[in-house]
Amino acid sequence: MTRVADLPGRWSSEPYLRGERGDRGVLLVGCDDEALVGVVHSSRRGAGVLGLGAPRALARLLVRQRAALAETGPAFCTVERGTAPHLDQVTLAALGIGPGAAGSHWDWLWTPSPLRAGHDDVVRLDLGPTSAAQVTDCLARAHPDASTGPDDPRVVAWWGVPDPAAPTRLLGVVGAMQVSSGLPPHLVSLGVDPAARGRGLAGSLLAAAVDDGLRVRPAHGAPMVSLGVYAANEAALRVYHRLGFVTAHRFTSFTRDPLPWP
């Protein structure tokens, strides 16, 4: 494995690699100024292929390295959106991408700075059974499809907005996970009760979580906070961009198992 700090050129400071790989590193297969291809490992999925860079340049690099990639038997493949149409069937097969596979489209966003929103109405919750029950209750109303809940061992914090009419009830929540030791916080499961939407609570929750997250010193690079969102969720993307998040990558992920992305 090559540590992110030891990758050549601009890749040593690339935000996604700093935020998601850090000292876990990448088994570098090939890179140039425009694209990088590596093998990464996920605790949930096993070994997979990661491709970053301009789609056409990335496609050329994947074609050149397809024999080496096929040897890894990748369980998943995450590449910049728009790359797959430039790949031939032999390369697609080497990446484990079956005929007609559509993949899951999602974006990776990040910020190294506080967001443009206040958060006086947000509290950081103590981790424990009481807050877990509150978060679970809120997500059932606010985000029933959330893939990360209080029982996920990677979660390190939750923030919530108490209901003034019933303080033990939450009107909205957001969590932060640490995918691996030394990595910066990654926000998950943002949800606001439908009855409380339109009040700016999502921005308040995100601003509070980012403020706390920027106090965390990662093992590699400067503090930052990231999140992932499905590309079809255009309303959420508008909110994130308005508050100050920047989209670093527009990904398509292909996988042999049913686990959700991002």
Strand order of the largest sheet: 1-2-3-4-11-5-10-9-8-7-6
* Fraction of residues in H or I helices: 10-25%
Number of strands: 11
What number of domains? 2
Runs in which pLDDT lies below 50 for 5 or more consecutive residues are none
**Annotation field: number of helices:** 7
Could you tell me how far the N terminus lies from the C terminus, measured between alpha carbons in angstroms?
23 Å
Assembly status: single chain
Q: How would a textbook summarize the main sheet?
A: 11 strands, mixed
- Secondary structure category: alpha+beta
Order of SSEs = HEEEHHEHEEHEEEHEHE
The pLDDT mean sits at 94
Shape: elongated
Strand content: 25-35%
Computed over alpha carbons, the radius of gyration is 19 Å
Explain this structure.
- The chain has helices at residues 15-20, 55-64, 66-71, 89-94, 129-142, 201-213, 234-243, and strands spanning 27-31, 35-42, 46-53, 76-80, 104-111, 123-125, 155-163, 166-177, 186-192, 225-230, 246-255.
- It has 262 residues and is of the alpha+beta class.
- The protein starts with 14 loop residues before the first helix and ends in a 7-residue tail after the last strand.
- The mean pLDDT is 94.
